[in-house]
Amino acid sequence: MHGTPGGCWGGRMDQHEVLALFDRRLRRDARPDSPTARVERDGAVVRQTGAEHDWNGVLWSDLDAAGADAAIAAQARHFAARGLECEWKAYAHDRPADLGRRLCAAGFTAGPAEAVMVADVRESGTDAVLPAGVRLRPVTDAAGVDLVAAVHEQAFGTDAAQLRQRLLDRLAHDPDTLRLVVATVDGTPVCSARMELLPGTGFAGLWGGGTHPAWRGRGIYRALVAHRARLAAELGYRYLQVDATDDSRPILGRLGFTTLTTTTPYLRPPLAC
């Protein structure tokens, strides 16, 4: 089994304990999510640095008011020197309390906040069924990734070129830690989703879940969450984790997910400091 037990296995989920596990295993002790990226610790900051198409940014920090501004400036210089856009992924419980204000003062721009939701796979809903006529297609090759990218662009209205490259890299170099699926109707992709497996952490991350606007409200997103929950359980993972938008939060709540905290992306363009 890929998932490693550890903590919170008795009784119902303890939210404070799971949040501590999340911070430690997925943020402070994070591993690269790409074969072309590396995770580095710089004082009280953990960051990932990779190629232009990788996710580049700060995963975890434990700063105090006295040293926060200098640490933020150091990270901005690090990524700017490499010509990379960076994201400081800040959480509501991160220190200092005014971290967001300090990031904005240093040239970062805040994106929409999302809810960090977690479910115990033993308590999450795994019985949702697909609407009539919808079929699931596992994705294991470039042609399937093209379908994922196409749905992503239709669902979110953003360019998926970098996502496509990241997924191709992952399938080529570390396929066992990724599960991709596309929902189709008469061969046309209408929804796509992925699950990123994090061996040794007990957590599986659910990402994507984008549905073509014409097919929203029919239960496809819910069914893909349930599908991935079943896969995670079969592989021995304990927790499912999602960064949820306001649209998906009610659906996930009905599937047994609990909000632990919120996260806000702070983006900084690749400008020289």
From TrEMBL:
Protein origin, superkingdom: Bacteria
Organism: Kitasatospora saccharophila
Name of the molecule in the record: GNAT family N-acetyltransferase
Pfam family, one: Acetyltransf_1
Lineage: Bacteria, Bacillati, Actinomycetota, Actinomycetes, Kitasatosporales
Domain N-acetyltransferase: 134-273
